[in-house]
Amino acid sequence: MSACADCRELAVEYGLALTGSRRPNANPRRWDLPLTTTRVRLDDHLITTHPAWLPDRQPGCDICEAWRADYVIGPMDEAEALHRVEHLCEPLREICTPGRNELADLM
Ligand SMILES: [Zn+2]
Ligand SMILES: [Zn+2]
Fold first, then answer.
1. How far is the CA of 6 from the centre of ligand 2 (A)?
2. Using CA atoms, how far apart are residues 70 and 93, in angstroms rounded to an integer?
3. Count of domains in the chain?
4. pLDDT digits over 39-86, tens only?
5. Which residue, among 13, 44, 8, has the nearest Cα to 31 in the 3D structure?
6. Taking the mean position of all CA atoms in its chain, how far away is CA 75?
7. Which residues are CB-contacts of 97 (< 8 A; sequence separation ≥ 6)?
């Protein structure tokens, strides 16, 4: 996907928080707030600006499967949008571990 400037900035902020929180000597309490705020900002941006990017319900995911059984027609509700954005951000969570530098490429 080709990110707009906002996505890039928000993803990098969230990625830096993720990487920092995963360092071996990281204090989880120190990272709680930055992780939550940067993630909420990224999620909000993706859901409101790029709803077309949200992936379909993922096979093998219990939460997606539950929705599949209970199919709703019409706009997806907020809980589902938030869950789908979680799938969308999975690759970001994978690359943001200390010692990998894919995030640097994104910047
Ligand atoms: Zn964007
Ligand atoms: Zn799912």
1. 25
2. 29
3. 1
4. 999 999 999 999 999 998 888 999 888 876 666 666 668 888 999 999
5. 13
6. 21
7. 18, 19, 22
- C-alpha distances (whole Å) from 71 to each of 55, 83, 103 are 16, 15, 36
Burial 32-68 (b: 16+ CB within 10 A, else e): eebbeebbeebbebbbeebeeebeebbeeeeebeebe
Token code pair at residue 105: 């490429």
State which residues form the domain around 68: 5-106
Structure tokens belonging to residue 66: 């539950």
Separation of CA 89 and ligand 1 centre (Å): 13
Which of the ligands is closest to the CA of residue 85?
2
CA of residue 92 relative to chain centroid, distance: 7
**What confidence tens digit (pLDDT) does each residue in 14-34 have?**
999 999 999 999 999 999 999
The pair of three-digit structure tokens given for residue 8, joined into one six-digit string: 């890039």
Largest CA-CA distance found in the chain, in angstroms, rounded: 47
